[in-house]
Amino acid sequence: MNGIRLVNIDKKLSGAQVLQEFNLNIPGGSFFALLGPSGCGKTTLLRLMAGFEHVDAGKIFLGTEDITNMPINQRRINTVFQNYALFPHLNVFDNIAYGLRLKNFSLKDIKIKVEQVLTAVHMEQFADRDVTLLSGGQQQRVALARAIVNEPAVLLLDEPLAALDLQLREKMLVELIELQSQLKTTFVYVTHDQTEALAVADYMVIMGPQGVIEQVGAPKDIYEYPATSFVANFVGSSNVFKGTLLASEVEEHWELMVDQVGNFTIATHQSEFWMKDGAELLMSVRPEKLVISKMSLTGFDNSVTGIVIAIIYHGRSTEYNVRLKMGQLIQIFEQNDQHVASADLIDYDDQVYVYWHSNAATLMPR
Fewest CB atoms within 10 Å of the CB: 2, 34, 92, 232? Predict the structure, then answer.
């Protein structure tokens, strides 16, 4: 199972610096997501790995093999494009078989291999179908089958679900996870949709607007412990406070002093070098980690008060926007529960308490 290493990559497009001294290690056999806003260099990275673009400086390795200057057809890397790029004059079977025929596989081997991948993508009954008569989801499956029939070491997926509607996209995400688990091929998935990336990835990299790596890790670690304010706000939603870190009298806790708001207790599950007395830091608390109530509650380490200015119903949850006395706006996500006590129903303009535990907060450097 071959991974990909990008070492000190520089790349300019139309005179603009897209990537500079870029380094990334993609583990072999993993489902790896490249996540970032439009224009951050995700697709450029994919094109460099595939060989459609060439680096200005640096090296690209597939396993231990240097593929920096290797021709596209020798790289053992296939790509599934956003627009699928199927041949409209060929049926499903012939679209998938195209690459095998170029490599002079026998008719018998072509039939066996195509039938195997058609089964893998649940399209065996469509072998003779004209691709122009297929739905978007079916065309996407054919594009996947055509890419994996050549048994690549790495499969690159450039926002392959962008053209699908929400329900079909969710279904195809599950099928992609299942397919990667069966094949054990390294999948590199490019998306600007953080929900997709969190759903499919074993590991992910968050890229900032200037092509800079903000954080690399498992989705849960990135979501629970964002390394920067950009990650906290790009991957999901977050409430971020600026404050000064203080040593706490409580063992294994810090305190963050936030001007005009108060002192907040933070559990020291982090032990970074920048966590020291007097450090100017940011504190991130995810909206779903907060508890909102009109009544005074006990058992929480931290609390603030504010006024409800918006209530947004999301089906599974309700979002409350609360403005604090010092003017900062925070979000609270509450799972909808039919057993909510009527005495605590919250409405617009209500003054409320917002609570959270010390281990719900994550500190970040400014």
Answer: 2
| Tokens matching residue 363 | 């500190």
pLDDT at 195: 87
* Residue of 338, 334, 311 whose CA lies nearest to 323: 311
362 and 284 Cβ atoms separated by less than 8 Å = yes
**Domains assigned to the chain:** 4-232 (3.40.50.300), 237-365 (2.40.50.140)
- Residue 314 corresponds to which tokens in the numbers above? 């999301």
Residues 6+ apart with CB under 8 A from 7: 23, 58, 59, 60, 61
Contacts by 55-59, CB closer than 8 A, 24 or more apart = 55/9, 55/10, 55/11, 56/10, 56/11, 56/12, 57/8, 57/9, 57/10, 58/6, 58/7, 58/8, 58/9, 58/10, 58/21, 58/22, 59/5, 59/6, 59/7, 59/8, 59/9
pTM for the whole thing? 0.88
Return the pLDDT at 344.
Answer: 63
- The rounded distance, in Å, linking the Cα atoms of 41 and 72 is 20
- The CA–CA distances, whole Å, from 183 to 2, 61, 107, 117, 120 equal 13, 21, 23, 10, 9
| Residue 41 scores a pLDDT above 60 | yes
Residue type, 293: S
Report whether pLDDT(268) > 80: no
Query: How many CB atoms within 10 Å of residue 269?
Result: 13
- As a whole number, mean pLDDT of residues 100-120 equals 93
Which one has a higher pLDDT value, 253 or 95? 95
Distance CA 75, CA 190 (A): 19
Structure tokens at 134: 């297929």
